[in-house]
Amino acid sequence: CAPACLLHVCAGGAAAAAAAAGEQHDDTAAAAPQASDELGSLLVLTSKHKLKSFAFSPAGGAKGSLGQLALGLSNNSVEVVDVREGSYESGSRLELQGHRSDVRCLALSSDDTQLLSGSNAGCKLWDPMTGSCLGSIDTGYALCCVYAPGNRHALVGTKEGAIQLVDVGACTVLHSEQAHAGAVWSLALLPDKSGFVSGSADKTIRFWTWTVTTVQQQDAAVAADAAAAAAAAGKKSKDGKKGQEDEATPAAAAGGVVVQQLGFNQTRVLEMADDVLCVRVSPDGRLLAASLLDATIKVYYVDSLKFFLSLYGHKLPVLTMDISSDSTLLVTGSADKNIKVWGLDFGDCHKSTFAHQDTITAVAFVRDTHYAFSVSKDRTLKYWDLDRFEMLLEMPGHHAEVWALALSSYGDFVITGATMLEQVCRCRALLWEF
C-alpha cells in the first residue's frame, strides 16, 4: 500500500463477464490477463492520516460485514474497520498516550516525580515511574522547557518566540509572553532561584525575574449571584432608584477569592553577534555560557555581564552544553559529532573526543560528579567519565533520531526522547558505581 489517504477494497466478480466476452470471440487470440479482469472496486476507504500498512481478514467483524481491515496510520495509531457492501464503519482504535511527532525537549521536576515533554503539538505531563500520561498542555511548538522552583509551574520556550508559564497541576497555560523575535532555543534557571535566562535566534539573551501578583477570581456560584444582583439593580434603576447598581457591584466583588499568581518580568538584555543556541549558568551563579551559531562559546560574568572567555574549537555550531556541579568544567556537544571538555578557569580545552556518528543533540552532567550522558541523532545514548576522558557505556535502543535528554537528580535513571517518548534505561547499576 502506498502512503496515501485512500484504500481501495476490491472484490472478485469480473471473471464471469470476462468468460462471457471470451465466448463471443472464440476465433480471436486470447489477450493477456489483467487485474481488472478478475477484480473490481468495491468501495474506497478514506482516513485523516496517511496509511503506512494494512491487513485484511475476511472473517470476523459485525453481522453483515464482508470482513475487517486493520489500518496502520502515520500518527502511530491502529484503526480497525468493518467493511460492508458499499460502505464501511470504524470498529475500534488503538493508540498510545504519546506524542505524534518528535520529542524536542524534556524536563524532570527536582524531586523526579514528574516529567514534562514537548513537541510541535504541545507538551505532555508524565509519571516517570509508571510511564503513564497525566495530562496534555496546548503550548504550540515547544523547543525547550524547565521546571520552576517548587515544581508547581514550568516554563516552555516556543518556536514562535514566546515563553509560556504553565500550571503543571491544572495542565493550563497561565501566562504567555512574546519574549523574543525569534525561536527560543534555550532556558536556564538562575541558581539563587530568583529568575531564569532565555536564549533566542533573535541574537539576544534575556534575564527574567519571578514576580507574584494578586488576582481576584470568582467561582461559578459567586458569578451567578453577581449576575442576579446586577439584574435586580437594573430593574430598580428603571423605577427611579438610582445608585442601587453601584452598591451591588462592590458587594458582588467582595464575594470573590483573592489568589496569588506567579509571573515573570524582564530585567536585563545581552546583545550577541549571532543566534543563541544554548545558554547555561554555572551552579555557583558566577558565569553565563552561551553557544552561538558561529560555532563559538562566549562566557560572561552574570552580575556585570562583562565578557570573560571565548571558546573556539568546534567546526560546527554547539547545540548543547552543561556545566558541572563544582563549576569547573564545561562540556559541549556539537553538530560536528565531537564532545569537548573545557576548563572554566582559563578557557583551555581539556579534551576533544569524536563521540557519536551524527549530530550531538544533548549532554548532561550527573550531579556532584564529572560523569556525563550524551545523546545523538545516531540513535544512541552514551555514558562518559570526563576525568579520564573515556566512554563507560553505550546504550542503543532508539529507532529514530534522539533529540532530548533528562537526567534524574541523583543520576539513577535517564530519560531520552525521540520520535516517540520512551524510557530507554533505568541505570540502577550505574547508581551503585557512583
Short description:
This protein has 434 residues and is mostly beta strands. The chain contains five helices and 33 strands. The strands form nine sheets. A four-stranded antiparallel sheet has the order 3-4-5-6, with no helix packed on it.
Strand order of the largest sheet: 3-4-5-6
User: What is the distance, rounded to the nearest whole angstrom, between the alpha carbons of the first and last residues?
Assistant: 51 Å
What is the tally of beta strands? 33
Q: Which parts are unreliable, with pLDDT below 50 for 5 consecutive residues or more?
A: 13-21, 240-254, 421-434
Q: Please give the largest β-sheet.
A: 4 strands, antiparallel
Q: What is the overall silhouette?
A: globular
Structural class: mainly beta
- β-strand amount: over 45%
**Tally of helical segments:** 5
Please give the share of residues in helix.
10-25%
Rg from alpha-carbon coordinates: 30 Å
Q: Overall mean pLDDT score?
A: 82
Structure description:
The protein is mainly beta and 434 residues long. It has helices at 14-24, 35-38, 220-238, 244-254, 428-433, and strands spanning 6-12, 39-46, 51-57, 67-73, 77-84, 87-95, 105-108, 115-119, 122-126, 133-137, 142-147, 153-158, 162-167, 172-178, 184-189, 195-200, 204-217, 257-271, 276-281, 287-292, 297-301, 307-311, 318-323, 329-334, 338-343, 349-354, 360-365, 371-376, 380-385, 390-396, 404-407, 414-417, 421-425. The strands form nine sheets. The chain has a four-stranded antiparallel beta sheet with strand order 3-4-5-6, with no helix packed on it. A four-stranded antiparallel beta sheet has the order 7-8-9-10, with no helix packed on it. Strand 23 and strand 24 form a beta hairpin.
